[in-house]
Amino acid sequence: DCGMHWVSKLSNDTAGVAAKIAQAVYPDSTTLTSMALGQAMTELANGRTEASSVVVVVTDGEPMSQKMTASAAAALKASAKLIWMQVGRTAPAYVELLKSWVSKPWQDNLIEVASVNSLPTPVVVNGMLAAMCPDVS
Q1: Given a cut of 80, is residue 3 above it in pLDDT?
Q2: CB neighbours of residue 85 within 10 Å
Q3: pLDDT at position 1
Q4: Model-level pTM?
Q5: What is the pLDDT of residue 30?
Q6: Which helix (H) or strand (E) holds 90?
Q7: Which stretch of DSSP H or E encloses residue 84?
Q8: What's the whole-number mean pLDDT along residues 79-84?
Q9: Is the pLDDT of residue 28 over 80?
Q10: Mean pLDDT, residues 58-63
Q11: Distance between CA atoms of 109 and 117, rounded to whole angstroms?
């Protein structure tokens, strides 16, 4: 068991998904980011073909394999916008890697979040929504 577990797949039931996330147990293990990106790419095949695809990575760690993550990110960006929300303090060298993994322009798609407690704040939520939906009307 690699520790990858879906809380929810594509769903319109936002309240149900939020409840499942609230009940999820923190895995406290390695970060298989490349595998998560591959799973996200597979899920996109089940999405609406007429919709623009967006994948948001929310993580508090560095991936187990930077090389595999770079490859998975490049493949995913061919079919979706990739936004990265990095939670917690991050080394400058790692931030440079993140800039290459996210969709361009990186300034719009790399969101650094101070702590997990900051995730639900208006500043962070608005930043994520602006990255996901730049043309809100």
Answers
A1: no
A2: 19
A3: 62
A4: 0.86
A5: 76
A6: none
A7: strand 81-87
A8: 95
A9: no
A10: 88
A11: 20
Other residues' Cβ atoms within 10 Å of the Cβ of residue 72 = 23
User: Distance between CA atoms of 52 and 34, rounded to whole angstroms?
Assistant: 22
pLDDT of residue 89: 81
Which residue in this structure is represented by tokens 């800039």?
99
Q: Is there a contact between 86 and 58 (Cβ–Cβ < 8 Å)?
A: no
DSSP per-residue letters across the chain: --S---S--S-S-HHHHHHHHHHPPP--S---HHHHHHHHHHHHTTS-TTSPPEEEEEESS--S-HHHHHHHHHHHHTTSEEEEEEES---HHHHHHHHHHSPSSHHHHEEEES-GGGTTSHHHHHHHHHHH-TT--
Angstrom distance (rounded) from CA 69 to CA 132: 21
If we measure between CA atoms, which residue out of 64, 111, 98, 101 comes closest to residue 80?
101
| Backbone φ/ψ region at 28: left (φ over 0), alpha (ψ -120 to 50), beta | left
pLDDT over 70, % of the chain: 98
CA–CA distance, 60 with 39 (Å, rounded to integer):
19
